[in-house]
Amino acid sequence: MWSHSFPLKTPILLCLITMFKLCSTFCSNSGTDSPFWDALVKEQTKMVEIMLDNGQNPNKHYKKHTISPLYFAVQRRNFELCKLLVAKGAKVNQRTKDHRGMVPLHIACARGNLPIVKLLVEEGNADIEIANFYGDTPLVYALLENENKLDIAQYLITRGVRIDQINFGASPLHIVAGIGDFAVCKFLVENGANVNQKTTNVGDNQFTPLHMASLNGHFQIVKLLVEEGNADIEIANSNGDTAFSMALFKRNFKLARYLYDKGARIDRMNKMGHSPLHIVAVIGDFAFCKILVENGANVNQKTANVGDHLSTALIIASVEGHLQIVKLLVEEGNADIEIANSNGHTAFFMALKKYNFEIARYLYDKGARTDWPRLIDAGFSIVLMPGLIVILVAIGSLLFVNRRQSD
User: Fold this and answer.
1) Axis-axis angle for helices 323-331, 357-365 (nearest 10)
2) Cα(66)–Cα(98) distance, integer angstroms
């Protein structure tokens, strides 16, 4: 018979009892039925190892968890736990069970953890170009979301990642040129990124990185792309807009002047039928309009869009009420004040129609034809008096007074 004094609690049994108690405690604290996940949450590496050695699946998701054990360990930046899971067969390319579809390498790059990135790639054979459901690759995550971005990006490139890989229409250079990260842009350009590559999404209008930088006003990145990357400044997007016209639209005249000095064409029309001078006439920037006029911009060029009624820069400036630009176009650009739009309306007529009476008076003094019958047909009332012409709108508001003795 066994003696009651026989030591039943051997070291092995004590270990099993302790393990059972710990598992029970973990489960009761978290409300789950998974001792393994509870050990992960507590980052009890030794306990996790015991369970894995005894048949625990290293890839199983439990209950509410949308992430794999390895993904969780990467999130916690626990290198030893990551190394253990990889060694025990964790799937390094297993996606999260949510709308993002991320893998452990994505989060490792985003968190800037180079040792774990190397572990996943070198010991786990992680796919270095795998994209999530939104098209973001490990390189994109590395470039956007951490302080060690350049170290990780350099490592991924040395491992063979494609620097110009397009995901959801954009390359890494498109992304960082748009957000304005100069250091990363410089890194990509120096490593051979294609500076003239266009986005491929239909809704993106086929932008180059230079377009992205110009639209967002990143002057230093524009200079980098042009001077170090030899970006083609005349490449247009699907709307016919170049980096130059985009800078004008955004009223970034410092950037526009830089591109002009680098050779941007000043009379190039986009697909909306607008030249740079048309754009500036709408915006009302006198200084840049003067630059264009003094450098030979065609002041009588009409817009090519029927919706704009085939207007000249003078007509546009008259409509918008930019008196100083009207004077500039007439006096320095020798603009023809009698050119009419597709409706037969001159700058003088359009100034009256928009109640820009000071401009109308200026153009009248410069010899604009009044065409009184046409004005009357358009709804204007006209009162003629000896030595005085008063143009009135139908409700009787005074437009301007001409004190010339004869018409």
Assistant:
1) 20
2) 6
Please tell me the distance from the alpha carbon of residue 346 to that of residue 13, in angstroms, as a whole number. 101
pLDDT digits (tens, 9 = 90+) for 68-111: 999 999 999 999 999 999 999 999 999 999 889 999 999 999 99
The whole-angstrom separation of Cα 264 and Cα 236 is 11
Measured CA to CA, the distance from residue 131 to residue 150 in angstroms comes to: 19
Q: Could you tell me if 57 and 123 lie in one domain?
A: yes
Same domain, 74 and 124: yes
The answer to pTM > 0.85 is no
Q: What is the CA radius of gyration of the chain?
A: 35
> Do the Cβ atoms of 229 and 191 come closer than 8 Å?
no
- How many structural domains are present in the chain? 3
The residue to which tokens 């400044």 are assigned: 233
Is 237 within the bounds of a domain?
A: yes
